Amino acid sequence: MRRLSLLLLGCLAVCTLCVRGVEFVTSDTMWDFCGEEVRGGKVTCEIAQAPEAPDRMSMKLTFRKQESYMQWLDVMYRPTPILDWTNEEYIEFDYYTNQDFNLMIKITGENNPGANKAVIEHLILIDGKSPAPGKWHRVKMPLPKDPKLKNTVNMISVYVNMNDPKFAENKDYVCYIGKMELKLKPRPVWPPQGKDIAGNFTTIWEGPIDEKSPWLKVGGPDNQNKHLARFKDGTIYFESKAEGWNEFAWSDAKRLKLKNNVTYLMTFDYQVTENLSGKNAMFYSLVRCAETITRDVGWQRWHGSAGNRGKRSVIFKTTEMPDYRVIFGIRDCGGIAISNVVISEMGTAKQ
Question: Using CA atoms, how far apart are residues 96 and 52, in angstroms rounded to an integer?
Protein backbone atom coordinates (compact mmCIF):
# COMPACT_ATOMS: atom_id res chain seq x y z
CA MET A 1 0.00 0.00 0.00
CA ARG A 2 2.85 2.37 0.88
CA ARG A 3 4.57 1.65 -2.46
CA LEU A 4 1.26 2.32 -4.26
CA SER A 5 0.82 5.63 -2.39
CA LEU A 6 4.35 6.71 -3.25
CA LEU A 7 3.76 5.72 -6.86
CA LEU A 8 0.56 7.77 -7.00
CA LEU A 9 2.29 10.76 -5.43
CA GLY A 10 5.11 10.45 -7.94
CA CYS A 11 2.64 10.32 -10.83
CA LEU A 12 0.82 13.35 -9.43
CA ALA A 13 4.08 15.28 -9.21
CA VAL A 14 5.01 14.40 -12.78
CA CYS A 15 1.55 15.35 -14.06
CA THR A 16 1.70 18.62 -12.19
CA LEU A 17 5.02 19.40 -13.84
CA CYS A 18 3.43 18.66 -17.23
CA VAL A 19 0.84 21.42 -16.79
CA ARG A 20 2.24 24.64 -18.21
CA GLY A 21 1.03 28.18 -17.85
CA VAL A 22 2.10 31.53 -19.24
CA GLU A 23 1.93 34.94 -17.56
CA PHE A 24 -0.41 37.43 -19.23
CA VAL A 25 2.00 40.29 -18.48
CA THR A 26 5.63 40.26 -17.33
CA SER A 27 8.31 42.72 -16.23
CA ASP A 28 9.44 42.86 -19.86
CA THR A 29 6.12 43.04 -21.68
CA MET A 30 4.35 45.51 -19.36
CA TRP A 31 6.13 48.37 -21.17
CA ASP A 32 4.64 47.34 -24.51
CA PHE A 33 0.92 47.48 -23.69
CA CYS A 34 -0.85 50.65 -24.79
CA GLY A 35 -4.30 52.17 -24.34
CA GLU A 36 -6.36 54.11 -26.83
CA GLU A 37 -8.76 57.01 -27.28
CA VAL A 38 -11.93 56.40 -29.27
CA ARG A 39 -15.19 58.19 -29.85
CA GLY A 40 -16.78 58.62 -26.45
CA GLY A 41 -13.94 57.53 -24.18
CA LYS A 42 -10.34 56.55 -23.53
CA VAL A 43 -8.17 54.20 -21.51
CA THR A 44 -4.67 54.93 -20.26
CA CYS A 45 -2.05 52.34 -19.42
CA GLU A 46 0.84 53.19 -17.10
CA ILE A 47 3.32 51.42 -14.85
CA ALA A 48 2.56 52.11 -11.18
CA GLN A 49 3.22 50.69 -7.73
CA ALA A 50 1.07 47.66 -7.12
CA PRO A 51 -1.57 48.22 -4.40
CA GLU A 52 -0.72 46.56 -1.08
CA ALA A 53 2.59 45.32 -2.56
CA PRO A 54 5.21 48.04 -2.02
CA ASP A 55 8.05 46.06 -3.62
CA ARG A 56 6.14 45.26 -6.82
CA MET A 57 4.99 47.18 -9.88
CA SER A 58 1.77 46.76 -11.81
CA MET A 59 0.12 47.74 -15.06
CA LYS A 60 -2.43 50.38 -14.02
CA LEU A 61 -5.41 50.79 -16.36
CA THR A 62 -7.76 53.77 -16.12
CA PHE A 63 -10.96 53.57 -18.19
CA ARG A 64 -13.20 56.62 -18.70
CA LYS A 65 -16.35 57.02 -20.79
CA GLN A 66 -17.75 60.36 -21.93
CA GLU A 67 -20.76 58.93 -23.75
CA SER A 68 -22.26 55.54 -24.59
CA TYR A 69 -21.26 54.30 -28.01
CA MET A 70 -21.12 50.94 -29.77
CA GLN A 71 -17.39 50.59 -29.24
CA TRP A 72 -14.75 49.00 -27.05
CA LEU A 73 -11.85 50.45 -25.09
CA ASP A 74 -8.77 48.25 -25.58
CA VAL A 75 -5.40 47.92 -23.93
CA MET A 76 -3.26 45.75 -26.15
CA TYR A 77 0.18 44.35 -26.83
CA ARG A 78 1.21 43.00 -30.23
CA PRO A 79 4.25 40.72 -29.69
CA THR A 80 6.98 40.78 -32.31
CA PRO A 81 7.72 38.13 -33.37
CA ILE A 82 4.44 36.31 -32.80
CA LEU A 83 4.33 33.77 -29.95
CA ASP A 84 4.04 30.00 -30.08
CA TRP A 85 2.01 28.80 -27.10
CA THR A 86 1.61 25.23 -28.36
CA ASN A 87 2.77 23.76 -25.04
CA GLU A 88 0.95 26.23 -22.78
CA GLU A 89 -2.28 25.11 -21.12
CA TYR A 90 -3.47 28.29 -19.43
CA ILE A 91 -2.71 31.96 -18.84
CA GLU A 92 -2.50 33.46 -15.38
CA PHE A 93 -2.08 36.85 -13.78
CA ASP A 94 -2.66 38.85 -10.61
CA TYR A 95 -5.65 41.20 -10.76
CA TYR A 96 -6.84 44.03 -8.52
CA THR A 97 -9.80 46.33 -9.16
CA ASN A 98 -11.00 49.43 -7.32
CA GLN A 99 -14.65 48.81 -8.21
CA ASP A 100 -17.10 46.19 -9.48
CA PHE A 101 -16.22 46.18 -13.15
CA ASN A 102 -16.50 43.92 -16.20
CA LEU A 103 -13.11 43.49 -17.85
CA MET A 104 -12.61 41.13 -20.79
CA ILE A 105 -9.46 39.23 -21.74
CA LYS A 106 -8.89 38.70 -25.45
CA ILE A 107 -5.99 36.91 -27.13
CA THR A 108 -5.87 36.37 -30.89
CA GLY A 109 -3.95 34.07 -33.20
CA GLU A 110 -2.74 34.91 -36.68
CA ASN A 111 -3.95 31.63 -38.22
CA ASN A 112 -7.20 31.25 -36.30
CA PRO A 113 -10.48 30.96 -38.21
CA GLY A 114 -13.15 33.63 -38.47
CA ALA A 115 -13.00 37.40 -38.28
CA ASN A 116 -12.47 37.34 -34.52
CA LYS A 117 -9.39 35.05 -34.62
CA ALA A 118 -9.70 34.57 -30.86
CA VAL A 119 -7.51 32.16 -28.92
CA ILE A 120 -9.60 33.04 -25.88
CA GLU A 121 -12.08 35.83 -25.15
CA HIS A 122 -13.47 35.69 -21.61
CA LEU A 123 -14.79 37.92 -18.86
CA ILE A 124 -12.50 37.99 -15.82
CA LEU A 125 -14.35 36.00 -13.15
CA ILE A 126 -13.47 34.44 -9.80
CA ASP A 127 -15.63 31.40 -8.97
CA GLY A 128 -18.13 32.57 -11.57
CA LYS A 129 -18.47 36.07 -10.13
CA SER A 130 -16.92 39.47 -10.76
CA PRO A 131 -13.71 39.83 -8.71
CA ALA A 132 -14.32 41.59 -5.39
CA PRO A 133 -12.85 45.13 -5.32
CA GLY A 134 -10.04 46.11 -3.01
CA LYS A 135 -8.09 42.84 -2.97
CA TRP A 136 -5.72 40.84 -5.16
CA HIS A 137 -6.95 37.83 -7.10
CA ARG A 138 -4.93 35.16 -8.91
CA VAL A 139 -6.69 34.52 -12.22
CA LYS A 140 -6.13 31.40 -14.34
CA MET A 141 -7.81 30.88 -17.71
CA PRO A 142 -7.48 27.68 -19.73
CA LEU A 143 -6.19 27.88 -23.29
CA PRO A 144 -7.64 25.74 -26.11
CA LYS A 145 -6.34 22.19 -26.35
CA ASP A 146 -5.94 22.43 -30.12
CA PRO A 147 -2.31 23.58 -30.69
CA LYS A 148 -3.27 25.17 -34.02
CA LEU A 149 -5.35 27.75 -32.14
CA LYS A 150 -2.48 28.97 -29.97
CA ASN A 151 0.72 28.63 -32.01
CA THR A 152 0.55 32.09 -33.66
CA VAL A 153 -0.41 34.50 -30.85
CA ASN A 154 -0.28 38.00 -32.33
CA MET A 155 -2.28 40.11 -29.85
CA ILE A 156 -2.75 40.05 -26.06
CA SER A 157 -5.35 42.46 -24.72
CA VAL A 158 -8.03 43.47 -22.25
CA TYR A 159 -11.07 45.56 -23.10
CA VAL A 160 -14.30 47.08 -21.80
CA ASN A 161 -17.60 47.25 -23.67
CA MET A 162 -18.63 50.92 -23.61
CA ASN A 163 -22.30 49.93 -23.49
CA ASP A 164 -21.83 47.85 -20.33
CA PRO A 165 -24.34 49.12 -17.71
CA LYS A 166 -21.62 48.88 -15.05
CA PHE A 167 -19.53 51.39 -17.01
CA ALA A 168 -20.94 54.78 -16.02
CA GLU A 169 -20.12 58.03 -17.80
CA ASN A 170 -17.58 60.57 -16.52
CA LYS A 171 -16.11 58.29 -13.89
CA ASP A 172 -12.66 56.71 -13.69
CA TYR A 173 -12.56 52.92 -13.44
CA VAL A 174 -9.15 51.74 -12.27
CA CYS A 175 -7.71 48.25 -12.18
CA TYR A 176 -4.24 46.69 -11.94
CA ILE A 177 -2.81 43.69 -13.75
CA GLY A 178 0.33 41.92 -12.54
CA LYS A 179 2.65 42.19 -9.53
CA MET A 180 6.12 42.36 -11.03
CA GLU A 181 9.65 43.43 -10.26
CA LEU A 182 10.65 46.70 -11.86
CA LYS A 183 12.92 46.07 -14.86
CA LEU A 184 13.60 49.24 -16.80
CA LYS A 185 14.06 49.05 -20.54
CA PRO A 186 16.67 51.33 -22.14
CA ARG A 187 14.24 53.96 -23.40
CA PRO A 188 14.55 57.73 -23.75
CA VAL A 189 12.69 59.97 -21.31
CA TRP A 190 9.15 60.65 -22.48
CA PRO A 191 8.11 63.26 -23.35
CA PRO A 192 11.56 64.22 -24.67
CA GLN A 193 12.80 67.66 -23.73
CA GLY A 194 15.79 69.84 -24.57
CA LYS A 195 19.07 67.98 -24.85
CA ASP A 196 17.29 64.63 -24.48
CA ILE A 197 15.86 65.09 -27.96
CA ALA A 198 19.26 65.73 -29.48
CA GLY A 199 20.81 62.90 -27.48
CA ASN A 200 18.31 60.17 -28.28
CA PHE A 201 16.75 60.93 -31.66
CA THR A 202 17.99 61.27 -35.22
CA THR A 203 15.30 62.70 -37.48
CA ILE A 204 15.20 60.80 -40.76
CA TRP A 205 12.34 62.73 -42.35
CA GLU A 206 10.27 65.86 -41.80
CA GLY A 207 8.90 68.40 -44.22
CA PRO A 208 5.85 69.34 -46.24
CA ILE A 209 3.83 66.52 -47.74
CA ASP A 210 3.63 67.32 -51.44
CA GLU A 211 4.36 65.89 -54.88
CA LYS A 212 8.12 66.16 -54.28
CA SER A 213 8.06 64.41 -50.88
CA PRO A 214 8.48 60.64 -50.33
CA TRP A 215 4.73 60.13 -49.89
CA LEU A 216 2.44 58.33 -52.30
CA LYS A 217 -1.30 58.68 -52.89
CA VAL A 218 -2.95 55.26 -52.68
CA GLY A 219 -5.64 53.91 -54.99
CA GLY A 220 -6.58 50.54 -56.40
CA PRO A 221 -7.57 47.62 -54.15
CA ASP A 222 -6.29 49.31 -50.97
CA ASN A 223 -8.67 52.28 -51.36
CA GLN A 224 -12.35 51.53 -51.96
CA ASN A 225 -12.95 55.07 -53.26
CA LYS A 226 -12.58 56.06 -56.91
CA HIS A 227 -10.62 59.19 -55.98
CA LEU A 228 -7.17 59.76 -54.45
CA ALA A 229 -6.02 62.01 -51.62
CA ARG A 230 -4.82 65.51 -52.48
CA PHE A 231 -1.80 67.57 -51.44
CA LYS A 232 -2.27 71.19 -50.42
CA ASP A 233 -0.03 73.57 -48.45
CA GLY A 234 2.22 70.76 -47.19
CA THR A 235 -0.74 68.68 -45.97
CA ILE A 236 -2.45 65.58 -47.33
CA TYR A 237 -6.27 65.60 -47.36
CA PHE A 238 -8.61 62.68 -47.91
CA GLU A 239 -12.37 62.20 -47.69
CA SER A 240 -13.66 58.64 -47.87
CA LYS A 241 -17.16 58.00 -49.21
CA ALA A 242 -16.88 54.20 -49.27
CA GLU A 243 -17.11 51.57 -46.55
CA GLY A 244 -14.20 49.25 -45.89
CA TRP A 245 -10.46 49.78 -45.42
CA ASN A 246 -9.29 52.89 -47.28
CA GLU A 247 -5.55 53.51 -47.26
CA PHE A 248 -4.89 56.94 -48.73
CA ALA A 249 -1.19 57.64 -48.11
CA TRP A 250 1.98 55.52 -48.03
CA SER A 251 5.53 56.54 -47.36
CA ASP A 252 7.74 55.55 -50.30
CA ALA A 253 9.86 52.67 -48.96
CA LYS A 254 12.62 53.43 -51.46
CA ARG A 255 12.96 57.15 -50.66
CA LEU A 256 12.00 57.04 -46.98
CA LYS A 257 13.82 53.93 -45.88
CA LEU A 258 13.08 52.32 -42.51
CA LYS A 259 15.89 49.99 -41.42
CA ASN A 260 15.37 46.47 -40.10
CA ASN A 261 15.16 45.89 -36.32
CA VAL A 262 15.34 49.60 -35.48
CA THR A 263 13.11 51.61 -33.13
CA TYR A 264 11.48 54.78 -34.45
CA LEU A 265 9.34 57.61 -33.12
CA MET A 266 6.68 59.10 -35.42
CA THR A 267 4.61 62.19 -34.61
CA PHE A 268 2.04 64.00 -36.75
CA ASP A 269 -0.78 66.53 -36.57
CA TYR A 270 -4.30 65.82 -37.77
CA GLN A 271 -7.54 67.68 -38.33
CA VAL A 272 -10.88 65.94 -38.84
CA THR A 273 -12.55 67.48 -41.88
CA GLU A 274 -15.66 65.26 -42.09
CA ASN A 275 -17.48 63.24 -39.43
CA LEU A 276 -16.91 59.51 -39.36
CA SER A 277 -19.77 57.23 -40.36
CA GLY A 278 -20.13 53.49 -40.86
CA LYS A 279 -20.28 50.42 -38.64
CA ASN A 280 -16.52 50.23 -38.06
CA ALA A 281 -15.56 53.83 -38.77
CA MET A 282 -12.20 55.07 -37.51
CA PHE A 283 -9.01 56.82 -38.58
CA TYR A 284 -5.87 54.69 -38.42
CA SER A 285 -2.16 54.48 -39.12
CA LEU A 286 0.31 51.61 -39.08
CA VAL A 287 3.71 50.52 -40.38
CA ARG A 288 3.77 47.55 -42.76
CA CYS A 289 6.47 45.62 -44.62
CA ALA A 290 6.19 44.57 -48.26
CA GLU A 291 5.74 40.83 -47.75
CA THR A 292 3.16 40.16 -45.01
CA ILE A 293 0.67 41.95 -42.78
CA THR A 294 1.63 39.65 -39.90
CA ARG A 295 4.65 41.85 -39.20
CA ASP A 296 2.64 45.08 -38.88
CA VAL A 297 3.90 47.42 -36.16
CA GLY A 298 2.97 50.84 -34.80
CA TRP A 299 -0.82 50.44 -35.02
CA GLN A 300 -2.90 53.48 -34.01
CA ARG A 301 -6.61 54.10 -34.31
CA TRP A 302 -8.62 57.13 -33.24
CA HIS A 303 -11.90 58.99 -33.72
CA GLY A 304 -13.08 62.57 -33.75
CA SER A 305 -15.74 64.97 -35.02
CA ALA A 306 -15.36 67.51 -37.82
CA GLY A 307 -13.16 70.36 -36.64
CA ASN A 308 -11.28 68.31 -34.05
CA ARG A 309 -7.50 68.76 -34.11
CA GLY A 310 -4.78 66.81 -32.37
CA LYS A 311 -1.24 65.46 -32.35
CA ARG A 312 -0.45 61.77 -32.21
CA SER A 313 2.79 59.91 -31.58
CA VAL A 314 3.83 56.29 -31.71
CA ILE A 315 7.02 54.37 -30.96
CA PHE A 316 7.51 51.26 -33.10
CA LYS A 317 10.25 48.78 -33.92
CA THR A 318 10.64 47.18 -37.32
CA THR A 319 11.39 43.48 -37.70
CA GLU A 320 13.81 41.67 -39.99
CA MET A 321 11.37 42.03 -42.90
CA PRO A 322 12.20 44.41 -45.79
CA ASP A 323 10.64 47.62 -47.13
CA TYR A 324 8.57 48.94 -44.23
CA ARG A 325 6.27 51.86 -45.06
CA VAL A 326 3.99 54.13 -43.02
CA ILE A 327 0.28 53.90 -43.90
CA PHE A 328 -2.52 56.37 -43.18
CA GLY A 329 -6.13 55.33 -43.69
CA ILE A 330 -9.81 55.74 -42.94
CA ARG A 331 -12.04 52.78 -42.27
CA ASP A 332 -15.50 53.42 -43.74
CA CYS A 333 -16.41 57.09 -44.27
CA GLY A 334 -14.99 60.37 -43.00
CA GLY A 335 -12.40 63.02 -43.76
CA ILE A 336 -9.01 63.95 -42.34
CA ALA A 337 -5.94 66.10 -43.00
CA ILE A 338 -2.44 64.92 -41.97
CA SER A 339 0.51 67.31 -41.60
CA ASN A 340 3.83 67.89 -39.78
CA VAL A 341 4.89 64.25 -39.96
CA VAL A 342 8.25 63.70 -38.25
CA ILE A 343 9.95 60.29 -38.22
CA SER A 344 13.01 59.83 -36.00
CA GLU A 345 15.36 56.95 -35.36
CA MET A 346 15.78 56.43 -31.63
CA GLY A 347 18.96 55.87 -29.67
CA THR A 348 21.44 56.41 -32.48
CA ALA A 349 22.41 60.06 -32.13
CA LYS A 350 25.89 60.90 -30.86
CA GLN A 351 25.99 61.56 -27.14
Answer: 10
